[in-house]
Each structure stands twice: as structure tokens, then as C-alpha cells.
Amino acid sequence: MKVTPPYFGAAYYPEAWPVEQIDDDIALMKQAGMNVMRIGEFAWSSMEPAEGAFDFAWLHHVVDKLAAAGIGTILCTPTCTPPAWLAEKYPEILIIDDAGRQIGHGGRRHACPNSPVYRDHCARIVTKTAGEFGQDANLVGWQIDNEVHPHGQPPGRGCFCPVCKQKFRDGLRAKFGTIGKLNAAWGTNLWSQAYQSFDQLHGPVRGAWHHQSLYAAYTLFQGDSYVEFCHQQADILHRLTRQPVGTDMMPTTLVSYERMNRTLDVVQHNHYHDMPNLWQSAMWFDYSRPVKPVPFWNTETSTCWNGSHTANRYRESGFCRANSWIPVALGGEAVLYWLWRSHWSGQELMHGSVVSSAGRPLHMFAEVQEIAAGFKAAADFITRTRPAQPKLAMHLSNWAQTVFESQGIVEGFDYRTRVVESFYHPIIQAQYRLDVIDAAAPLTPYALLVSPYLVSLEEAALRDRLLAWIEAGGTWIAGPWTDVRDLHAAKYRHAPFGSIEDWAGIYCKQQIPGIPRDFAIRWADGTMSRSQLWCDGFELRQSGVESLADYTEGELAGLSAVAARKVGKGRIIVLGTQPDAAALQGIIAHLAKATGVVPVGDASENLLVVPRKGPAGEGQIVVEHEHKPATLTLPRAATDLLTGKSVPAGRVEIEPYGVKVLKY
Ligand SMILES: [Zn+2]
Predict the structure, then answer these.
(1) What is the pTM of this model?
(2) What pLDDT does residue 307 have?
(3) Ligand 1: distance of its center to the CA of 111 in Å?
């Protein structure tokens, strides 16, 4: 049996149901039009009921039954939920939280990713599972573990067990060499925090006012522990299996997508955005796409509402359609719901699904069937065209999130929220297509780069690469709050910025928090707006610097709020404050001639328009994502592959949550 993309399916937990029920489930899966199920992520105790006693017969039965119905399997390693016998016999594997409590059996993600005992048991179950299924032609791919990231509330995220403590110290010893160098980099003389040896270092806990460098170092260490944990499993899977390997990641950058996926084959992403913020899911797919040249997988999303203890945020009719097409439009080749059949017991009883725990199709079942039919009708176009490569990119940084968690700019500042709402949203509303990239990503595909709140240019040695890219012709929109911390989360002492003053020929004369009051700004064309969040006021010190906007009041009056300068063949634009949506859109539009970055089409701001090209032809996929009517000006006559009808060039109406696959 060979299942081909686009993959469409759900998470399925046969271990929780009587074995004979699978026939009813499969019959419904076929009715739904699904071709793949994701299985096994929490099934360790069914695979290894006692230490060293393995049972895969039930799992073979499920995989074979699905295959006989033409449904492929994404098999997961079950390491998120170690069995009771493992926790009982080897309690040292259990996470110790920041209050010193050992997290016992009965939940999930309660084993320490650094525990060598846990790692050995994980390696064994993964090796066994890979040996059983690695050559099974009915497998479509592998998922390592589930949603790996350090749990807990900052600043006490992750694990504080003796192994983590030692590994954290050893890591800093390897990085700094001597404790004196760590003290110098972190500036520990203040508050008598200077360490005499690495053995005096502890992770930061809630209730204490810890050093920012310590906090950032521990958060980074815990996130990277999961990278190492997954890579160990990937090595085994790569040795014993022939299907692509990934791990399903959440919309958080606490674990670096770039470092995690470096040795994996396919980026897998889960999200549960709902009606008010569905558009935000696009940022995470624009972030998943550039990580690998192959199409990403949307491994989990909801059909109709979220829920764990309670059912949350019901989605109107049509949501499932728009939500399922956004990842496909943006370059994905798999959409899987969480979950197939609602649980009858245990955690997450109230989560939306495809069929109820009683096996009855939920209200949006017909919509699921329609999505399946659409994926099938447009399969050739989906799989043999790709989204056009954007010339515009925006940074989203693992290190910035790590640093801002312990030292926000102003009260209530949240890094991800500001990047997605104040930068990504205005950009897509103006119909620019972009890649959202990690600091380590190459810059060569891009003509225009926006780096909001990119706290350090030392991440991934970006500083030198960035300057070389600008000098070669790139245009960089920097800030606010970019290049203001080093790799130890400390400030620079020669200037508020590492390099930006030098590069842009400016002098930052005043810095004032933009809350509770803001300041008026006059743009070069006479337009007025207000500062937001933070205000850097610049003097223009070098030749060739121009001010694109000046503050007109208060202590900042007369200083530049946005400065620009040509550097080599390129250009730098420094934002001293967060521009409003219109101002940001205006800056990008103003640069169109220099960068070639132009909107992909004339369309309503609530419409996602993705131009696509490839061996299967050329066209665009459009998805309405705000549950409102939208319009689009189609540049060429096309056929809507979902209806088979021809659509003439010109104005096209799109219904709320409407989708069109338009092939020219
Ligand atoms: Zn630990």
C-alpha cells in the first residue's frame, strides 16, 4: 500500500478502545476521506507492559487494518509517557520541579530529558519499535515524542534534578573555561553574586530574584536538552527505518526550531489557534516552511473547539475548512486533527474531535469530508507546486524569547505577541508574503529583512553575516530593541546597541519607556502618529543619514524616531519605537523600488493569498481567515480546482472562511 500526499487524518488512540472497535472507526475514517492516522505517542505501557517484555502484536494489527483500508500510519515514539513500572523502579528519571517536588507518575512529560537512565529506556523502546516497523511499507513517517519543551512557569521552567544541575554546571564550565570568565561575562559583583566555582551554580526558581544571565542560561539549557533528547532518538530511527522523521513542535520558540530540525527530515507543527487569532497560525507555518526544503506537516490542530478539563472556544462552521487549508496553502503537505475519536476516560475529555466517544460524527463532519474531497481534487497542484520564494523575511528568535521572558522591555511586554501582532499582522494584511526565519537562517534569498525585538546579533554569529548581506545590497529594518543585549543577556557598555549606532551613523541620545505615555511623531510626508512601548531618540551623526520620522514633543522633541542610511549597496532603517501598522506598511511600500518587495495581489486584508508555481503549473491558493467576506483581484483567468469552474480575471468574491485553489 502506498499513501501519497497530501496527508489528511487525525491522532488515533486504539490502545484506549476495545480491539474489535477498529472496524467501526476505519469505516468512519473512510467516510471522512482520511488517508493517514497518527498513532502511538502515549502508548509505551501497551508496547512494553513490563521491563523488557514487549508487545507489538496489537500495534501491528492496527497498522495492518488501517493499511488494508488504504490508510497510512505516522508512528510516534511513546517516550512522553513512561510506564508506571519505569517510574517506580527508577525514580531518578522523574522531573524535580523548581520547588523541589518530584513529579510522579500519572501525567505526561514527567521524566527528565537529561536522565541517562530515562534516555537508555527511551533508546530501547525506540530501537524495538523501529525494528518492528522501520521497514513496514504502510508507514508514512515517524514522530519523536510529543510537544517537547520545558514545562512550568518562568523563571522555574523545566527540571531541577541532580543530573540537570550537574549538566548545567558542566555546560557552563565547557563554555567559559574558568569561573572568573563567567563572573566577568555575567557581571556578578553586583549583589555579591560572584561565584567561586561552577559547583555553586543552581537553576533559577520562582520566589527568588535571580540574575538575568543565570535565568537565560538555564532556560536555554533546558530547551536545548530536548534538542539533544530528540536527536538521540532520530539517530536510532535513521539507522533502522526508511521513513521521514520529525517531532511535533508547538508555537513557542523556547525550543529552537532550527537546532531541533537540523538533523530531522520533516518539520512537524501543532497549533490550536481559534477564530480571533487564526491568522496567527500563518506566522508559524511561514516559520516552519524555510527550515527545511521539504513540505512541513501540520501534525495537530482542532476541528471545532479546544478542551482539556473544559470545552473551550467553539469555532463556527467553516473554521475547520479555513484552518485546514492555511497550512496547505503555505507549503505543508499534511493536516491532522487532534483527535479522531474523543477520549472516554482520562485527561482531555472535553476536547473537540472528528467523532464523539460514542462514535457519532460531530457537527462539522460534512466539512471534513469536503476538505478531504478538496485535497484530493487539488492533489497534483498542492504537491507539484510550491509557494513562490518571498524576497521579504522577518526574524523570530529563540534567544530573544529566552531573554525577554526574564527581562521584558516594559510591563506586560510579551515578545511573541509583539512580533506577531505588531509586525507580522500588518505585513500580511498589506498582502506581502514573507518567510519568518531563525537567526541562524541564511539571508541570501532575501532583499528586505525585518528584525523586530531581535535582542542580540550575537545569536548564530548573525552580526557579521548581516553586515555582509547589507553591504551586498540587502535592506534591513531593525528594531525596536534590536542588538541591545549580548549572548549573556547583558547590556553593552559602550552604547545602547552593539553595532547599530556605528552602522547607521546615529547617536541614541535619549531612551524613554513608551508606557504609560506616548509621544507624537511626524513622518517625512507630514503624517502624524504616536510612539508605542519604547522610545529611542536619535541624533544623526554621520553623512548620509536621514530621519524618516521625528518626535515632536516632550523630552524627545527634535530627535529622530526612525533613521535610515545607505550602507554599501544596501540600507539600514532603525526603528526607535514600534511603528503603528500604517507606518510599518508605509516604510515597506516606500522601499519597493530598492527591494522589489511588492504585495502579491490586490486583496482584502483578511484574505491569505499564496502564489504557487511548479511542474503542475501556476496559480494561487486563497483562504479567508477572519470569518468575513473578502475580495480579490485575479490577475489572470483561472480554474478553481475545488469546483472545476473557470474564474475570469478581475474581481472575485470570497465568502467567510472561503477557500479557492486557482490554477491559471
Ligand atoms: Zn533533570
Answers:
(1) 0.97
(2) 87
(3) 8
